[in-house]
Design goal:
It comes from Streptomyces glomeratus. This is DUF4429 domain-containing protein. InterPro entries: DUF4429, SHOCT. By secondary structure, the protein is of the alpha+beta class. The chain has 3 domains: 107 residues, PH-domain like (Roll); 100 residues, PH-domain like; 39 residues. 27% of the residues lie in helices and 26% in strands. The protein is built from 7 helices and 14 strands. The protein has a 4-stranded antiparallel sheet. Strands 8-9-10-11 form a 4-stranded antiparallel sheet. It has a 3-stranded antiparallel sheet with strand order 5-6-7, covered by helices on one side. Helix 6 runs antiparallel to helix 7. The longest helix is centred in the last third of the chain and has 18 residues. It is elongated. It starts with 9 loop residues before the first strand and ends with a helix.
Length: 290
């Protein structure tokens, strides 16, 4: 009886990952270890439905290896959508690097998968690969970002945040008020995570360090394995929330937090970074939140 992919549990092991083939999906389990890319360790494992795969390639790799790669269907994976082509090759979760002597075996599985893939060339109308699960957080250069599944929060740091962000205060953004995310890799210049708001009239500043809806990265801040899964989870929640933003009541602030913000605002005022009018206005806004 000919072998088919319908038998669950077939496994192809490579460097840093193992692919387990099932009748309707490929389960990718990433190994843990000092040589495994940190993004893979953060992801742990991912189940990729066959309908999320547009095709497969098998190419020669470096130093006696071959590379089996699943080509994700556009719009099917929030992680790939958020990355927007910025992932380095060795951090691509759809690449399986194998010893060259497994070329024939890899070719066999690639052929088996191609028979089962029915991609028609159109982008997916919804995400098919599950996003990283909230809660998630990471430390950026100018603040701490956190996401609980419904709201993205930015808490500014004393040393890194611009005066514009300090004057705006810590921020909370329900996903229902967002239209998407903009992730720029920390491995490039001007890396940042910006939340795109549905209110087009709001007019977001061009520079992320001046935008209260953005956090900026830096050396050791917002690394790919922390900020990209965060961006993917937010993007998936935004898409799931639908086109109509819902009203969310504002939460009451902690009095101790308000007092700390007023103290820091006073320091900015004394340093000449905040005008008398700005100081009075912002202080009144903070007191009104008590």
């Amino acid at each position: 009886m000919p072998h088919t992919m319908s038998r669950m549990g077939d496994v192809l092991a490579g460097f840093h990952a193992v692919w387990e083939f099932e009748s309707d999906s490929v389960l990718i389990r990433f190994e843990r270890g000092i040589r495994t890319p940190k993004l893979f360790q953060a992801l742990g494992e991912r189940r990729v439905p066959l309908e999320a795969i547009a095709g497969l390639t098998l190419t020669q790799g470096k130093r006696g290896t071959v590379v089996l790669r699943a080509v994700p269907r556009p719009g099917a994976d929030p992680l790939i959508e958020a990355a927007a082509g910025q992932l380095k090759e060795n951090s691509d979760p759809y690449r399986l690097v194998l010893p060259a002597d497994r070329h024939t075996l890899a070719e066999y599985y690639a052929d088996e998968l191609r028979v089962l893939i029915t991609d028609d060339g159109t982008p997916a109308d919804r995400f098919l690969v599950a996003p990283p699960q909230a809660p998630l957080q990471f430390k950026a250069y100018d603040g701490k970002a956190s996401f609980d599944g419904r709201t993205v929060s930015f808490r500014w740091s004393w040393t890194g945040a611009s005066s514009a962000k300090w004057k705006a205060g810590d921020q909370s953004f329900p996903v229902t008020g967002l239209s998407g995310v903009e992730w720029r890799s920390p491995e490039a210049l001007e890396g940042h995570l910006r939340l795109l708001r549905r209110d087009a009239d709001a007019g977001q500043p061009a520079q992320p360090d001046q935008d209260p809806a953005a956090v900026v990265f830096g050396l050791g801040y917002g690394p790919v394995h922390e900020s990209l899964p965060f961006a993917a989870a937010v993007l998936s929640a935004v898409r799931a929330a639908g086109p109509s933003p819902a009203a969310v009541p504002a939460a009451r602030r902690d009095p101790a937090d308000i007092a700390e913000r007023i103290r820091h605002l006073g320091e900015l005022h004394k340093a000449g970074l905040v005008t008398d009018e700005e100081f009075s206005t912002k202080k009144a806004e903070l007191l009104a939140e008590l």
